[in-house]
Design goal:
With 302 residues, the protein is an alpha/beta fold. The protein has twelve helices and five strands. It has a five-stranded parallel β-sheet. It is globular. The protein starts with 6 loop residues before the first strand and ends with a helix. The relative contact order is 0.18.
Amino acid sequence: MNTRPDFLIVGMARSGTLWASAALNEHPDIACFPSMPVRTTSSEHRLGEMHFFNTLASLEPNSNKARTRPLSDFLTKYGNIFSDLVPLAQNLPRKEFYAIAVERYRALCEKVRENKKMVGESTPAYIFHLDFIDTLYPGIKKICSLRDPKDRVVSWHFNSISKGKKTEQKITEDFALDYVKDCILPEYESLLAYKGSVCCYTYEHMSRAPHEVVRNLLHYLNMDARNGIIEQMVKNASFDEMRRRHAETVDTFAYEDKGENAWLRKGVVGDWKNHMHSDISEKIDSTVFPLHKKVFAKYNLI
């Protein structure tokens, strides 16, 4: 039996990582979480993004605190799976604490794996901690989805509205460029700096040819990629199917269809044209393009 998770979906934010996780989880030999949206007031029975590595990374002496989550989050979040470990961090050497935390994470992954051959987890914030992840799980396979930054800004805009963090319906230049500066550019820089291997694909490719993307992911993971399996994976991970299952399983808050402002929202390629002034889109492109070009060249993306 494996003694560690087999792969991680490491990013990027607002780029369809939930779709990738849901699709992989539909493979008969792969378990991946989260495979459904989790937005409940008490979600112990449903695993969302665990933020495991970016939380542990907060203990690293030279960590960028803006890219980590405080260890205290483990006390109340993520189903309290790691809550009893927090006090240990004050009394144990860091490496010893890591070993205990990794064992707990391994046990969680094994529980999710059940009888499947492979298990993985998805948290987009992991993209900032690729080297740190390798210190804990050397050589673990990593998957990353990239997306047009303009559509990512739109997605973040509506996500912020759905969470009550933003009330203005208009996407302003400051809002767009702040997200580019704070999130998108650092993600590109992280991929460029990393010396290891990451399997990258684009959201646009996934939207245009989901079967092809799924097949490529399965080849990367060395898993069965027969046409019938891929067809079922794509079908069961579709937006409509995910939305239907989400509406059926939500039990601690009223499910509401809020249209554009819905919490679970279908990302349409090129949707930025419907929500963003051309001046803003041009500034995003000019800001991101130099790094975008380098990342696409490094990871053989078109």
